[in-house]
Amino acid sequence: MRGKSTKRLEMGEKAWAEYQKLRQYRKAKKYGTAHRIRLKQRLIKYKGGECKKCGYDKDIPGAYAFHHRDPDEKEFSISRYTHVKWSVLQKEADKCDLICVRCHAEEHDKEFAEVRQQFLERSERHQSSRLKKIECARCGTEFKPRRRTSKYCSIKCSNQR
Fold this sequence. Notes:
Layout lengths: L5 H6 L1 H34 L17 E5 L17 H8 L2 E5 H30 L3 E2 L6 E2 L11 H5 L2
Antiparallel strand pairs: 1-2, 3-4
């Protein structure tokens, strides 16, 4: 059995255990990230290497997304399950279109367009009912108040009351 290193002796057992835990964490994180990037690059190559909608074809893995054509058939999110077998990833990727993140955002935006429109209409109704013009208590000018309690059109009028 080897003797303890001078660094370990200087640090003490408790600090040494923490140091080793941190080293292992960093090593695992470094390997895990590299593994995910390599796997995504392999899947991108498998799917043709370019955006199906706009033709974007740069070699930047983070610029691509796997968009499920039918969300009901989705078994898992490809980006979250990089620890499964290659054949399982291929099977899931076959249910997806390879598109760039910009096209992916536009694709999902279509799903929420109606909800967003309803929200904007409600917001406009709320704003218009709340911000009715009133007359300044000092100078008589019509203005839109910022608060319900506003009585004056400006700080100048407020200071001259």
